[in-house]
Amino acid sequence: MVNDLPVKFLEIIARALWLILPAYIANASPVLVGWGVPIDGGKNFFDGERVLGDGKTFQGFLIGLSLGSLTGIFQIRLWADPRVQNILQTQVWNWKVPVLLALGALLGDMVASFIKRRYGVQRGTPILVVDQLDFVLGAFFLVSIVWIPEWFTVVTWLVITPWIHLGTNMAAYKMNFKSKPY
């Protein structure tokens, strides 16, 4: 029984990553576009600062929503395979779950950008924890309309996401997709 603990722990992590994958893809995809029309239209808020900034574009939003949703649709197709069901031991979603995960991730990131602008934090300036978890929290809150993940899945997301976020940002920086490694 005790020897099963590391295996169970790895299973929980793998399952949690599988379930949040549409949000991860949605959050990472906008850098692939690298340009676009700002969602805030270049407008300032009442405080004189940009509403969101140049980093949040319609093109980035659409690519993130599309790729995140398509990832989830592909996952649903994979779930039809009994071998995948046996490995993941989780329920099959309908199309709403990946779409809401992707949309929630993008909206969570936009909310964080809005808050950062209110505090005068410039685009690209990191805020520890906020920048790593904004999209996961947005995804969780929005998807909770139709599906509530188990508590240990959410805790796993909150613990591993900052590390994954750091690693993927470093990789994107090395591949010249990002101008800063964070």
Automatic annotation (TrEMBL):
Keyword Transferase: yes
Membrane topology recorded in Swiss-Prot or TrEMBL: Multi-pass membrane protein
InterPro entries: CarS (IPR032690), CarS_archaea (IPR002726)
Residue ranges the record marks as coiled coil: none
GO MF annotation list: CDP-2,3-bis-(O-geranylgeranyl)-sn-glycerol synthase activity
Pathway: Membrane lipid metabolism; glycerophospholipid metabolism
Compartment(s) of residence: Cell membrane
Cytoplasm in keyword set: no
Keywords: Cell membrane, Lipid biosynthesis, Lipid metabolism, Magnesium, Membrane, Phospholipid biosynthesis, Phospholipid metabolism, Transferase, Transmembrane, Transmembrane helix
Pfam families membership: CarS-like
Reaction(s) catalysed by this chain's protein: 2,3-bis-O-(geranylgeranyl)-sn-glycerol 1-phosphate + CTP + H(+) = CDP-2,3-bis-O-(geranylgeranyl)-sn-glycerol + diphosphate
Predominant localisation class: membrane
Biological process terms in GO annotation: glycerophospholipid biosynthetic process
Regions crossing the membrane: 12-37, 58-80, 92-115, 154-173
EC id: 2.7.7.67
Enzyme class of the recorded protein, top EC level: transferase
GO cellular component entries: plasma membrane
Protein family per UniProt: Belongs to the CDP-archaeol synthase family.
Functional summary from the UniProt entry: Catalyzes the formation of CDP-2,3-bis-(O-geranylgeranyl)-sn-glycerol (CDP-archaeol) from 2,3-bis-(O-geranylgeranyl)-sn-glycerol 1-phosphate (DGGGP) and CTP. This reaction is the third ether-bond-formation step in the biosynthesis of archaeal membrane lipids.
Stored HAMAP family: CDP_archaeol_synth
Protein name, per record: CDP-archaeol synthase
Species of origin: candidate division MSBL1 archaeon SCGC-AAA259I14
